[in-house]
């Protein structure tokens, strides 16, 4: 048996369905975002873990110059090692028709007689290689697709100086190569780096590795100590040219995927709570005002003999119906949104399958935040309403007392007409209520400002990286560290206007317990093409003895100028150096560390070595220059900055960064919801006054002015406040989007504020238009009959 | 012969449709001459307020014609009805419907600002005996005073016709009488036709013409030979 109060509840909900839905939507969007983002991150982590496990991705990678096969048995005997795969890898250059530059590739061996114990491949097209056919290869699917290559096609590749023809028999994916980055570059690009799998015997023959391997893969038993295993591996391999075993966490592709997922994770942890908090605050305000407007019905029910608890319970149910309804709708929206987005990300991360999983905690958080904010909003106002005697409901409503506002506005009266005075007095009489609406709208403005600031931050990152820090056209990398004569050869080429040497030295940088596996970049003094810049974009003069770290790296290592940095060099003699940090450099891409080239060579005791060069070229000669570079035996790869910029842009618009557009859209929806709710409530509170104005003979436009004027003033006051809030909010959102891979600055960009203001004003105009429609449609008679 | 302010023919108002339809007015034929005080009497739901709403330009008839002078209200657009209310009609309601954010004077000025030929707002307030309280907000006025502000607001535009829906419904007898006196003054001084809808049969005594309503139609129309003053009315 449904009680009469519950009947009333259902009817009330139906009556206020428009408003209830508007409130519910705001909380739904906040909750939905939380559920969607956490679900996305959970699913990606689960899928990655499942993919790694199914294709037996190694836990430790150990590169070595040339180690005899028998060492594999010794490696397998190390305590904590479950299995070992010794393989041959080698650099290759693939020649493709119609492409000036040869494309760098890595050749990877597959065992002749069995499946690889570790780092399996997933065949997506064609068949596996035939161990008797030395010219058969598998090609990385993403690379093949980027160049339109299919099983059955033939390609030419240069391996170890010899040019050979190969037949593609299959396309494959591997958890090891989800992301491929050309050596010396930071940004992955499917088209610019390939992976070739071929039989161990064929590859060993090409690289003189018969009976030997140059990379060991190890998987560990549960509970093994990775550091101890790595040390044991190094002890065995260093005599054979081992450059140091490293864990999966430092493996290029995995590191990139992890960075991207943790970028999403940071965005999921940092941004939705802000949105949810704004939605919850709005819910509080709206519920508060809604219950306030029910004041008289509450009095009436009390007059009938209902207790405070019964009446309170009734309204509590009403509030909960809206809050829980909104939260549940949000959960559903989050699941649907997550499902839609996850497919985009699965394709982006090149996972061959999907493990869709939601985070139950996000549902609990979302629903409880909604319930909490709605109950607080409802309860606070109910308490004041309960103080009313039932008799107030039986009497004609006393007009709200505006007597205090009259005194403050004498001067206004001279130049304000009556409708304007109504607007001004209402705002000044109920500053608390107006402040609520204003703060709500300011929060919407803040969300918009910070999201648009983030958009500008992404552009800034690209601009700073590719136009300010790196001003070269071409980056050349050499096969190995070569003498500076290579630079002179480059300078002599026709059309090359400027050449700057660079040396990249792989190293593990340590400060106490914090470490980072990266690269130390040696730059020429007075470098003009690639420079270390400080926060004011002034060039940092590189000292003869010190190292300058990028902001991101200094943060990772928790180190400041003046401190001593340990540089554990992972090439050549592998010395461990102590170098003072002299400056912190502005960089938004990667986490570089800069040294003066001569100083770097001096501490390595390898004078006049370079590993690459930045070139500035005359575009007229570009094609000829590429051809010449291709013919130089010392050149391992050539990268164009323009290509890198496009790849970076693509990365930002399809990876973790892409979520900014989804968040931006949600920010706009919330902003609209806030403004629309503010307008709706103001209308609900004033419908009787407005009807009276219409009866007296005010036109629709004149009547609407009284209501919309209020909305306009509240909105305009909210804009600057929202701008200030947004300024601070943008820092935390920018931090959420920044990763080791790239950083997003929260820069003050007036255009972002202008655009956000336009969005809020647009929302206000749209809401005003919707409410004005209701003013126009309002039945004058019924509006007059209802008492306030 | 005096001309009619209103004249209706077959005026019908139906709320809802089909089985749930409610016939609020069932073909009302009525003439209201200029300058009279007319009282519409009848129980709740008899149709008197519906009639007032239609000829006041607040609502539209389902069928029939309602002429104001020679203009057909049934054919007016929304814009024209607004114009009509603005220029010709004053309203007084049971619950006053004052703007709480405006002072007494400002409430009156709300109308004088938009009317074609208004009187001075202070003069209108003086007429209802509120010269001293022009700067008070509604919350600072008693119910009777609020109603008198509402009347001042209604008459300040020099209306052709004044509609009063239960104007004394929320007032005690003394205050009610003073309000009725104001209505009488307005009728005599401005020549406005005054229509009063009320439950209180005794108020009929001050009218020139009393129209009795029942079941959506006019039961009878009584012309008052000898009008009483509000003071003489039994409350």
From TrEMBL, chain A:
<dbReference type="GO" id="GO:0098797">
    <property type="term" value="C:plasma membrane protein complex"/>
</dbReference>
<feature type="domain" description="ABC3 transporter permease C-terminal">
    <location>
        <begin position="662"/>
        <end position="770"/>
    </location>
</feature>
<feature type="transmembrane region" description="Helical">
    <location>
        <begin position="266"/>
        <end position="287"/>
    </location>
</feature>
<feature type="domain" description="ABC3 transporter permease C-terminal">
    <location>
        <begin position="274"/>
        <end position="388"/>
    </location>
</feature>
<dbReference type="Pfam" id="PF12704">
    <property type="entry name" value="MacB_PCD"/>
</dbReference>
<feature type="transmembrane region" description="Helical">
    <location>
        <begin position="20"/>
        <end position="41"/>
    </location>
</feature>
<feature type="transmembrane region" description="Helical">
    <location>
        <begin position="751"/>
        <end position="771"/>
    </location>
</feature>
<protein>
    <submittedName>
        <fullName>FtsX-like permease family protein</fullName>
    </submittedName>
</protein>
<feature type="transmembrane region" description="Helical">
    <location>
        <begin position="704"/>
        <end position="731"/>
    </location>
</feature>
<feature type="domain" description="MacB-like periplasmic core">
    <location>
        <begin position="27"/>
        <end position="235"/>
    </location>
</feature>
<dbReference type="InterPro" id="IPR051447">
    <property type="entry name" value="Lipoprotein-release_system"/>
</dbReference>
<feature type="transmembrane region" description="Helical">
    <location>
        <begin position="318"/>
        <end position="342"/>
    </location>
</feature>
<keyword id="KW-0812">Transmembrane</keyword>
<feature type="transmembrane region" description="Helical">
    <location>
        <begin position="435"/>
        <end position="458"/>
    </location>
</feature>
<feature type="transmembrane region" description="Helical">
    <location>
        <begin position="661"/>
        <end position="683"/>
    </location>
</feature>
<feature type="domain" description="MacB-like periplasmic core">
    <location>
        <begin position="436"/>
        <end position="609"/>
    </location>
</feature>
<comment type="similarity">
    <text>Belongs to the ABC-4 integral membrane protein family. LolC/E subfamily.</text>
</comment>
<keyword id="KW-1003">Cell membrane</keyword>
<dbReference type="InterPro" id="IPR003838">
    <property type="entry name" value="ABC3_permease_C"/>
</dbReference>
<feature type="transmembrane region" description="Helical">
    <location>
        <begin position="362"/>
        <end position="386"/>
    </location>
</feature>
<dbReference type="Pfam" id="PF02687">
    <property type="entry name" value="FtsX"/>
</dbReference>
<keyword id="KW-0472">Membrane</keyword>
From TrEMBL, chain B:
<keyword id="KW-0813">Transport</keyword>
<keyword id="KW-0547">Nucleotide-binding</keyword>
<dbReference type="InterPro" id="IPR027417">
    <property type="entry name" value="P-loop_NTPase"/>
</dbReference>
<protein>
    <submittedName>
        <fullName>Putative ABC transporter ATP-binding protein/MT1014</fullName>
    </submittedName>
</protein>
<dbReference type="Pfam" id="PF00005">
    <property type="entry name" value="ABC_tran"/>
</dbReference>
<dbReference type="GO" id="GO:0098796">
    <property type="term" value="C:membrane protein complex"/>
</dbReference>
<keyword id="KW-0997">Cell inner membrane</keyword>
<dbReference type="GO" id="GO:0022857">
    <property type="term" value="F:transmembrane transporter activity"/>
</dbReference>
<dbReference type="InterPro" id="IPR003439">
    <property type="entry name" value="ABC_transporter-like_ATP-bd"/>
</dbReference>
<dbReference type="GO" id="GO:0005524">
    <property type="term" value="F:ATP binding"/>
</dbReference>
<dbReference type="GO" id="GO:0016887">
    <property type="term" value="F:ATP hydrolysis activity"/>
</dbReference>
<comment type="similarity">
    <text>Belongs to the ABC transporter superfamily. Macrolide exporter (TC 3.A.1.122) family.</text>
</comment>
<keyword id="KW-0472">Membrane</keyword>
<dbReference type="InterPro" id="IPR017911">
    <property type="entry name" value="MacB-like_ATP-bd"/>
</dbReference>
<dbReference type="InterPro" id="IPR003593">
    <property type="entry name" value="AAA+_ATPase"/>
</dbReference>
<feature type="domain" description="ABC transporter">
    <location>
        <begin position="6"/>
        <end position="235"/>
    </location>
</feature>
<keyword id="KW-0067">ATP-binding</keyword>
<keyword id="KW-1003">Cell membrane</keyword>
<dbReference type="InterPro" id="IPR017871">
    <property type="entry name" value="ABC_transporter-like_CS"/>
</dbReference>
